Amino acid sequence: MNATSPVSLAPRAVTQVLRGMPASDGAGVKLTRVIGQPRLPDLDPFLLLDEFGTDKAEDYIAGFPEHPHRGFETVTYMLDGRMRHKDNHGHEGVLEPGAVQWMTAGRGIVHSEMPEQREGRMRGFQLWMNLPARDKMAPPNYQEFGGEKIPQVQTAGLGVKVIAGEYGGAVGPVKQPATDPVYMDVRLDAGVEFALPVPAGHSAFVYVYEGAVNIGVSREAATIDAQTLAVLGDGGEVRIAGRAPVSRAILVAGRPLREPVARYGPFVMNTREELQQAFADYQAGRF
Question: How far apart are the C-alpha atoms of 10 and 70, rounded to whole Å?
Fold first, then answer.
């Protein structure tokens, strides 16, 4: 079947709509948990999606002190504020507005994420993506890009930041062959439409963080308000239209791994025995 056939580009419909739940993590940072809550424990290969956004320093100032990870990837996308990252492998840096850090924990890393500010707005997302069994014990790795390295496509009433995937000739800097991810930050004026081919079979979601959008086509389109996530069914294309004067959303997709998941706290493996080994290795200082 060719890539332009009507079936392969069938628009994806919304199959589930949910709002995030208040949560806290690290040393008491307040956030909204969207994926990783009872109504949506995961969406293979996505394990967790947190939104953080506040003007109150007391909600974020304690940060995320030193903690371990093994077996998956964390994706941090900063909208506002500055966060310093430091780990036990000698990597250190500051994420500023517009920056993306795609960290592959692999066989093990111990790191901290602490605010580089004591006042002002802190806003962004953290996404956890699973790794296939063959990559869970790979060396830790970073794909880290400042906002100026994220390509943008601008047309009348539409702005797209391409973090992973391709749109309008722009190719996102993040690469991950195992899950072939798509990650876009989309800004829409009212009535403006955005359409993106997404590989059939990929899990996909849209999270609206400002305004409101329609997802789908004509009478079948679903209206999704701010702070709401839409899980998308299968198909070859995602279509989004702005409903508010200005709307912003992240569109994320990835190839499912379809592997067993053994998960506890900061470790995500395939079996209970591998989880127990992860704890033993961390306690023995082997990260």
Answer: 37
